[in-house]
Amino acid sequence: MALLNSTVITEFNILGFPEMAEKRILLFTLFLTIYVTTLCGNLLITIMTKLDPSLQNPMYFFLGYLSMIDACYISVTVPQMLVILASHHQNVSFGACIMQLYTIIFVEGAECILLTIMAYDRYAAICRPLHYNIIMRRGKCYKMLFGAILWSMLHSALHTVLISHLPFCDNVINHFFCDIPPLLKLSCVDTYMNEIVLFAVSGVFIGLGPFVFILVSYVYIITTIFQVTSVAGRKKMFSTCAAHLIIVNIFYGTGCFTYVRPKTSYSSEHDKLVSVIYNVATPLLNPIIYGFRSSDMRRSLTQGCRTITFSVT
User: Fold this and answer.
1) 263: phi > 0 → left, psi -120 to 50 → alpha, else beta; which?
2) In the chain, where are the structural domains located?
3) Which residues pair with 133 in a beta bridge?
4) Which helix (H) or strand (E) holds 55?
5) Collapsing DSSP states into helix, strand and coil, what is residue 12?
6) pLDDT tens digits, one per residue of 87-117
7) Picking from 107-116, 181-190, 274-283, 298-307, which range would have the lowest pLDDT averaged per residue?
8) pTM value?
9) Nearest to 178 by CA among 109, 253, 103, 89
10) CA distance 192 to 205
11) Per the CATH hierarchy, to which homologous superfamily does domain 3-312 belong?
12) Containing H/E element for 188?
């Protein structure tokens, strides 16, 4: 009977934040400020890690690509949100919605795997320092990066194909972008298979598997740190890992809440709030927590500013 009520959907209507319509100008200003700040911060880190000779090591190699992913990450959702807040233009074609879905799943998967690789990099640096240059040689870094991109593309394609073939009974998305949970809620048929794939592929291979790898890596890292007798040495080792742990907790915590749970537990209002943290706050925090708290990054930024000032004068 559900299929009888389905229609051919050519476009979706994205509601955004109708419950906060009276604060539309405030939200627009807030999200525009966050977007510009995030974009500039992440692009600056990407450029610095490519141009500064002192930042040519595996940790900053992956940080540069993580920042690039974050710049793409926030650019997939926030510009559309700004258009909705500014003009009430909430319609998006079916093809554009599916393309946005593919891109957001891709960048989320790539970020997840990059965070895992960065945990491995910290493990190699702290637990096997004498072999670090061999373990994390440049060729291997490029192979790991290519593997992360390829796996993320295949993972995203799987979910996108499954969802694009679903029949939809409604075209109103109670969210601020096209994402898996709100689209599954609009389906006219049982989405059990989609949820199984979401749990099995995203939950295990993109979520649980990498998270367990990160957890095991930090068990070895913390064990090694506590074997160091120097207090200054312990603090230095902890400082190189603290930023990564903070980002991992935010990213995985909100990500699991968003995707790895049954469709019946989805709540549009709660999902939108968590998605703001997941899709907006995390890319904003990455350059602040992971990048500019690094003494090497601050020194590179200071030298760059001095060089620009000297060139202008």
Assistant:
1) alpha
2) 3-312
3) none
4) none
5) strand
6) 877 888 999 999 999 999 999 889 889 999 9
7) 298-307
8) 0.85
9) 103
10) 19
11) Rhodopsin 7-helix transmembrane proteins (1.20.1070.10)
12) none
